[in-house]
Specification:
Strand 3 and strand 4 form a beta hairpin. With 259 residues, the protein is α/β, with parallel strands linked by helices. The relative contact order is 0.14.
């Protein structure tokens, strides 16, 4: 499987509209939550799974793309083809891990198999077709490994490193379950509840190791090619040009020569 990111930016979502408003303001006037996310050196990367029997990332994007939605991650990995549907620009603050998590992390959801059925409002489910469910799980897992390797490379994140936030150590790549467990918050056992109940040999430790291995493989395969479309001495000119570029390429960003 090779990385394939399909743009499904949810421009109708309340989260997207809020980011557009916040980015139009000078930093001093931005909400502290959004200023924190925009101003950080590099984000944490949080892996989620949907917690419902929905294998299509396209369907999930449609669910998120409405002005009344209360949650949205930056991307969803499809359980059928392993491809990523990117639903927010990476530099937008998402709504996926509570206020504290949203302030410091990019969030990615994995879609789950239609061959399971959740039991009430719990994280327990019945397995309707074990082989199909496990195949869907493996597809989404491998797609997420590809995506996280890409994001680690883009943002300079070490998948095996830890970082101190408010006196607590967090892996730079972590699951939603780990984020809440370290913070002492109950709820949200994803994605490990999904893997465990299907009997998959996956944990967040195996996921981080797989992302690290993928990064090392890509580095060994040859050079990385970057595309530059402008160079400026004046930061304001650079930001104005970036805004024009992002109309067509939302992932474009500024990198200073002293970084």
């Amino acid at each position: 499987m090779s990385l394939d990111i399909i743009q499904r930016i949810c421009t109708k979502s309340g989260c997207y509209a809020t980011n557009v408003r916040q980015k139009a303001l000078p930093p001093a006037q931005q909400s502290s939550d959004y200023r924190t996310f925009y101003g950080q050196e590099r984000p944490l990367l949080i892996l989620h799974s949907l917690g419902c029997a929905r294998d299509s990332a396209d369907v999930q994007a449609e669910q998120w793309d409405n002005p009344n939605g209360q949650a949205i991650a930056h991307a969803c990995v499809d359980a059928r083809d392993g491809k990523t549907r990117q639903t927010l620009p990476w530099d937008f603050r998402g709504w996926h891990a509570g206020q504290a998590g949203n302030n410091v992390a990019i969030g990615v959801e994995m879609a789950e198999s239609l061959s399971i059925r959740y039991i009430g409002r719990t994280d327990r489910f019945e397995i309707l077709d074990r082989n199909k469910a496990r195949a869907n799980c493996e597809t989404a897992y491998n797609g997420a490994v590809e995506l996280f390797a890409y994001l680690c490379q883009m943002f300079g994140v070490d998948p095996l490193a830890k970082r101190e936030i408010n006196g607590k150590l967090f892996p730079e790549v972590l699951g939603h379950c780990e984020w809440n467990r370290i913070r002492g918050v109950s709820g949200h056992t994803d994605p490990e509840h999904y893997w465990t109940q299907l009997g998959m040999p996956y944990t967040m430790d195996t996921f981080r190791q797989a992302v690290k291995a993928k990064l090392e493989q890509e580095q060994a395969d040859g050079p990385i090619y970057r595309i530059q479309v402008g160079a400026f001495r004046n930061r304001a000119y650079a930001e104005a040009y970036l805004a024009r570029v992002q109309e067509h390429f939302p992932d474009a960003y500024i990198k200073s020569s002293d970084e």
